[in-house]
Write a structure and sequence with these properties.
The chain is mainly α. It folds into 2 domains: about 1-95, no CATH class; about 95-215. About 75% of the residues lie in helices and about 0% in strands.
Amino acid sequence: MGVLQRVEPDVAYAYMSADRIVSWLHNYISQGSVTTPQDRQVVAQYTETLGQWCAANPSHFRVAWRLSKPLGPEAAAEILADSLEMYFIRVIKDNSMSWLDEGDYFSPYVLDTLAQSGHAPRLLRVLKYVIRIPATCISASDAPYRLQAVVRGGNTLLKGGRCTNESLLELFYEATVEYRRLIQSLVADVTYDLDEGDKRETITNGCLQSFRSLGE
């Protein structure tokens, strides 16, 4: 527990520290020894300490979700939901997120764990919060990645089945509005990058597939 409390998220080896802690707990659990009250107390104490660490370090969600991986699905989902909400409140305040890294913030583990839990509506609220961030707060290069994060998250929620189709339809509608805004902006721009064109096609296909699924 002392090691977890001393994890410093600002240093270059933060991920390595998190991986070592996770590896230790995975090994502890895989030995099948988490059966006595004392063993269960160790896991409970880790969960509690992790929650405190996440609350004290809201800007370092990418470390937080790695540290939550050894936990059971519901315990991990609660910490992930709390941490994700705190993170975006802090990010919007500081305007400090690079959306190029959206795949690490909204990793498959984060999306799947939340989408399959009772905290799925909280993920949906975060995604709606993200898509409603004013365009003036998002750079032109970051905007497609922001949209991609929302579409990926929405598709994962759709598969999880924990949110209503109506609430997801609202999210995908807002994503489509943002997509149209990006297209209009690009049409007005004389530069056209082929790679960005491919990314827009991927996002478009994702939105269209989501609408088809909602109608089934």
